[in-house]
Specification:
Radius of gyration: 22 Å
Oligomer: single chain
Distance between the termini: 30 Å
Bound molecules: flavin-adenine dinucleotide
Strand content: 5-15%
Number of domains: 3
Number of helices: 14
Shape: globular
Largest sheet: 4 strands, mixed
Helix content: 40-55%
Order of helices and strands: HHHHHHHEEEEEEEEHHEEHHHHH
CATH architecture of the largest domain: Up-down Bundle
Number of strands: 10
């Protein structure tokens, strides 16, 4: 513990923390904070852009990118502090597809021309990206993807579809992996391409989700879509390694520890201030016990994250699966408790728009809690499902 604390409490890091909290208290718009407080994960394009531009104006956008590309060039400890303070203050996550996923891959694998062309749009929050990896029969087993990119002169011609594309309906560009050769091992013959979502032949079909939160994921169809060869990242057939680096680039984010700490704090505040039958909710032994169990589980994940962060060296390896697995399980347990504690109101008010304008605030809160509980189940699926994480742990950590 001593070394963990010293990493986070050096005078430089403490000074950085003060700067971040001052920035947040002066600049986080209350309407954006209110949405995050309601556990809303996916903000509108306009709100995401507004917040990104504010963060950018203060030099904190693209925090992990090196300064030469306009990023903040933060150390691991500073990145950790930034993520934690943003979550605790109720600030949205970064625009992950551009900032966290594509940006670092472009910096590592792109040509100088590609970096000049694509990084500024991400940095300034002007270009929205989506991720075209999964297909109907290629999710956990991603290398089985079939959407083809056939070489034709100076272009690739794409045919097929991508599935579960988050933000595909608002994205300007997609980064994706496509099959350019099916003769060898399935991980070979995959090529990483960038494509303009306004290209002729691209059509986006939203998929309704059962949480009723509106459009979030989509199916994207390609019908003879032409992509210039200069929009290929890396060599033809070398896309699998780049895709893997994109999937592991969110080093601290996918365990959701910071967001869970903020969610549990909100839930505890709710239980302390809400009275049922003349008694504060927190005085109910069942509620108190459940909160304590959640707190213990969350603190264990937090300590594990810190241990990996400052003791495991550069590569997390298979242990990263432990964080993703437990982090998202605990996150879902917190949001499940939040819906349960709202009582019957949560099941009556699935959709806020179904409520009469005179509905008590409790019912509106309950509707948000239930939606969050339903919506966040996705964190146990994307980025590698819980079952797949268990397989990785069994093989890579337990040696089974
Ligand atoms: C809300 C949401 C947003 C998403 N956004 C994107 C996006 O923007 N871009 C993108 O490319 N993809 C996206 N995805 C797709 C996501 O990456 C896949 O859903 C995920 O990889 C699982 O793949 P699948 O849905 O095909 O399920 P499958 O792989 O078919 O799995 C079905 C079930 O079988 C289990 N399973 C699979 N293989 C094994 C195994 N070997 N051992 C044990 N159990 C197994 C899984 O855990 C799961 O329970 C998103 C998904 C969701 C839910």
């Amino acid at each position: 513990m001593e070394r963990l604390d010293s990493n986070l409490s050096s005078p430089e890091v403490a000074d950085f923390r003060r700067k971040v909290t001052a920035f947040l208290s002066e600049n986080l718009p209350s309407d954006i904070r209110a949405q995050v407080d309601q556990e809303k994960m996916d903000l509108s394009k306009e709100d995401q852009r507004r917040w990104h531009k504010t963060v950018r104006a203060h030099g904190l956008a693209c925090p992990s990118w090196p300064k030469e590309y306009g990023g903040a060039g933060l150390s691991d400890a500073e990145l950790y502090i930034l993520e934690r303070e943003f979550a605790l203050a109720g600030a949205p996550r970064p625009m992950i597809y551009g900032v966290t996923m594509l940006g670092p891959a472009l910096i590592a694998h792109g040509t100088a021309d590609q970096k000049r062309r694509f990084l500024p749009g991400i940095l300034e929050g002007d270009t929205f990206w989506c991720q075209g990896f999964s297909e109907t029969n290629a999710g956990s087993d991603l290398a089985s993807l079939k959407c083809t990119a056939r070489r034709d002169g100076d272009c690739y011609v794409i045919n097929g579809h991508k599935m579960w594309t988050s933000e595909g309906h608002i994205a300007d560009w997609m980064f994706g992996i496509f099959r350019t050769d099916s003769s060898g091992r399935k991980q070979q013959g995959i090529t990483f391409l960038l494509l303009d979502m306004r290209s002729p032949g691209v059509s986006v079909q939203p998929i309704a989700t059962f949480d009723g939160t509106g459009t979030e994921i989509n199916q994207v169809f390609f019908d003879d879509v032409r992509v210039p060869i200069e929009q290929r990242i890396g060599d033809e057939g070398a896309g699998w390694e780049i895709a893997k680096s994109v999937l592991t680039s969110e080093r601290f984010g996918n365990a959701e520890v910071s967001r869970s700490i903020a969610s549990l704090a909100r839930l505890e505040a709710y239980c302390k201030t809400t009275t049922v039958d003349g008694k504060r909710l927190i005085e109910d032994p069942f509620v108190a016990r459940r909160l304590i169990e959640l707190e213990i589980a969350l603190r264990a994940v937090e300590q594990t994250e810190l241990r990996f962060l400052f003791h495991a060296g550069e590569e997390l390896g298979a242990e990263a699966a432990l964080l993703k697995l437990r982090g998202t399980e605990v996150q879902n347990a917190i949001l499940s408790a939040a819906a349960d504690f709202r009582g019957p109101a949560a099941s009556l008010a699935m959709d806020e728009s179904d409520l009469p304008p005179s509905a008590p605030k409790d019912y509106v809160d309950a509707s948000h809690a239930l939606k969050a509980h339903m919506n966040y189940r996705k964190t146990m699926i994307y980025g590698g499902s819980s079952e797949v994480q268990r397989n990785i742990l069994a093989k890579g950590v337990l040696g089974l």
